Amino acid sequence: MSTRTVSDAIRRGQLRWNRTDGWRFALVDGGIRFVVVVGDTETNSPVVVTGWTEVANREAALDARRWDPVDVDTIAVRAALSESASTPIPDRIRPRTVTRPFVVGDHRLKTEPGEPYVRCDDCGCRFRSKDAITSRGCHGRSGR
Question: Residues 10, 33: contact at Cβ < 8 Å?
Answer without folding.
Answer: no
